[in-house]
Batch of 2 targets.
Target 1
Amino acid sequence: MADRFPPSLKPTVHFKTLKREVFGRVTQCRIGHCFTGEYYSKFVPSENVDCPCGEAFQTREHLLRECPQYEDQRHVLEAVSRDISLPEILGTKEGIAALAEFLETSGAFTKSGKPRRSPDLPSFEDEPEPAGTDDDGDG
Ligand SMILES: [Zn+2]
């Protein structure tokens, strides 16, 4: 149902504008290769298939349409498709734009299912030693 665009050699507008990590999750979500119990049940038997909210079998549809973890962000999807129809969300331009926003703000479909922390600013200790300050004679 995500396969509704003709093939193209040009990168999509999403590819060019989204953060790389979010773009990756949008793609994984659209093709179904994503961090869900549904996927684990087929490909990663060591992982649990339930959802932290208590749902026994976590599916992509559950996360997008009903998981209470993402109640606060779901309006973004509903604005495009009132009943959050998966073909609309996964297979139309407007749907994918909404999906990207939903994924970015909610953290859904990450391994932890929570928003990713932005990396801390580098501290002084992380700075590499400037070149030429050692005394082994090569600087
Ligand atoms: Zn859930």
Target 2
Amino acid sequence: MSAMSNSDNPVEIIITDDWQGACFDALARQGVSRPLLVTSRGTASRLGLSGIFPNAPVMGDIQPHPTCEQMQAAITRTRRQKFDSLVAIGGGSVLDTGKAIRMASQAECHELEQLFGWDGGITSNVPMVCIPTTHGTGSEVTKWATIWDRKDGIKRSLSNDQLYPSAAILDASLTLSLPLDLSLISSLDALSHSFEALWNKNANDAATGFALEAIMLILQNVPRLKQNPKEASVRRDLLRAASLAGLAISLTQTATAHAISYPLTLKFGIPHGLAAALPLLPLIKLNRSLLSEHLNFLVKNLNLSSETELDKQITETPKPILKSRLAEFGVSRDELPEIARLSCTAQRMTNSATPLSRADVLSVLQAIY
Ligand SMILES: [Fe+2]
């Protein structure tokens, strides 16, 4: 077992081959013993969680890309359950739902709508252990929970300093059964988080260091993942990369690529990680002067011959497993201006260090069409 250095981020990051032991140790360090278990049906059955946490109340049917209605239902269902902590085991949607339940419990407010922008104070501390089974969102180290408001067609966030998990447990064995397509989508999300931290108006040395290390780990390991998805050392590096990228955006937030991704996910169902990674290459071009030192660093440390080769590696990341053009997802060329308009109204767009016009965003969409 080892810890990961995490700058000023308050999450205790534990890298281990024994997630169960690390979880119970983390709960004991927090002085709690009755966690609410938040997970998905598949994870609960695959890991035999009812045997590992025999007396724990369970919120066990979390769906991907949770909506406001699903988050509210999870908060309502767990309101009367007795727990002193949370253990969330699963992908980003599970971890984010756990955070929403935790926020409601800590604030003693069980109306999701009131929790957005909550300034009513926190009544109690409910420690939370996050155990990711994917290597993408980095939610295990951030203070946000993403919620998909399908009624209004926007992505929303719960955000509060009290939402940083108490501990993140990274055990590569939990990611070995993740199918290759979802594995790539996860790593593409982490790759996008990393670049978002670089072209961000909130960029700083710590975030840049995390982001560059994450990019190198992802680009080095994705080809190996495609060859052998069951290789634990590859998964360990990709899990570490996702948390590093999470640490980076916990300092900067996300930016343009995520702003562009939200309408692509909400309107066309493009999985989040893929939607957030598709715009990367044209955005690298638009931000090239800002990125020149970082791109040189990556070319040198990845032993590449040129930036063109780096571009090629990024382009190749989803292939041949995932679709990588908007036209393949049923997007019509006529819809690009509206997607550009929606992208420019998304919260994260203003984090771009390079001011981008709606015409710039349209050019990005045309480049990936
Ligand atoms: Fe993301």
